[in-house]
Amino acid sequence: MKKILVATGLFGVLAFAGSVNAQSASATASANAKIVAPIAIAETSNLQFGSIAASAAAGTAVMTPAGVLSVTGGATIVHDGTVTTAAAFNVTGAPNATYAITLPAAAVTITSGANTMTVDTFTSNPTPTGTLSAGGSQALTVGATLHVAASQAQGSYTGNFTVTVAYN
Amino acid sequence: MIRSTRFPLFLLGALLLAIPRVGAAQITIQNTAGLNFGSLAVGGSAGTAVISPAGVRTVTGGVVGLGSAYGAASFTVTISSGSATYFLSLPTGNTTLTGPGGATMTASTFTSNPSGLIQQVPSVPGSQTVTVGATLNVAANQTPGSYAGTFTVTVFHF
After folding, report:
1. Does the residue B35 lie in any domain?
2. Rounded to the nearest 10 degrees, how much is the dihedral formed by the CA atoms of B120, B125, B131, B134?
3. pTM for the full predicted model
4. Using the beta-carbon criterion (under 8 Å), do A32 and B35 form an inter-chain contact?
5. For residue B8, which residues of chain A lie inside 8 Å, CB to CB?
6. Is B43 within the bounds of a domain?
7. How far is the alpha carbon of B125 from chain A, nearest alpha carbon, in Å?
């Protein structure tokens, strides 16, 4: 009897020792990110309506993003050699990235001394979003509509407007 | 006095039962996908990019997420014997991602699915997929380029 008890006790100790077995394992993973250049916009040309003749009737002068100038109502284009152009910008940033274009929503005032005219209905090419080239740039042109009042005072009218671009 | 034939048999039986459990690889973990925050643009203000364990990316502050090539890390935990329960340990503190010219960003707040310290595989033997996300801290005007780092996930089995 005593012999069997001793053997069983030894068996029990060994079995217990064998079942206590803590183990750990690890795995390593990579973490990656790519930071791309911020988007930027730089003006390369002003929006120039050129020389416009006013009359007793109000009218408009419309510049398209392609640079085509036309008039309506009492406004007349004066071909005196003054340059007429759409506004032009160079948009730069991450290659092949798309971006949203925000043009002025409200009318912009241009002034000549105390005299003013308004410019609104801004349009662009591309619109309403653009895609940068593989080289990370795109040309953006902007046109608008100039409101010429009846008997608008003579003078050189100037003002500013803002175009905003953002990755989307 | 112990009979010479019986005692050795008991001892042998005990050792045969004990030995297979000592040193056997009961739990393993394999990395099957890296953590990728994707392409990010940052302007004049700092922000973050968060990848959830489900692989969803959200950005805060001045960070803009570009493209769709991003995702959570993935691991496979396998238990071959013993208890189905294991402990899952994610990195704590900051993990550094290094980029051009030694520029760095830190990733922190690691999250997982399933979440928590105590986990269970569905059956033994059996495996479980654990996906891991984190938060990337991006400085204002962070230097453009590719950034890379590593992190380790550890599992414990008793």
Report:
1. yes
2. 60
3. 0.69
4. yes
5. none
6. yes
7. 16
Which residue in chain A is spatially nearest to B103 when comparing CA positions?
A: A35
Strand partners, A90: A42, A139
Q: Domain tally for chain B? A: 1
Partner residue opposite A19 with nearest CB, options B21, B136, B148: B21
Element (H, E) at A16: helix A2-19
Residue A136 confidence (pLDDT): 94
- ipTM for this model: 0.84
In this predicted structure, the answer to whether residue B87 has a pLDDT above a threshold of 70 is: yes
Q: What is the pLDDT of residues B6-44, one digit of tens each?
A: 666 656 555 544 444 445 669 999 999 999 999 999 877
Domain residues for the domain of B126 are 24-157
For A135-153, what is each residue's pLDDT tens digit?
A: 999 999 999 999 999 999 9
Return all residues near B90 (Cβ < 8 A) that are at least 6 apart: B110, B111, B112, B132, B153
Question: Is B142 a member of any domain?
Answer: yes
- Please report residues of B whose CB lies closer than 8 A to that of A92: none
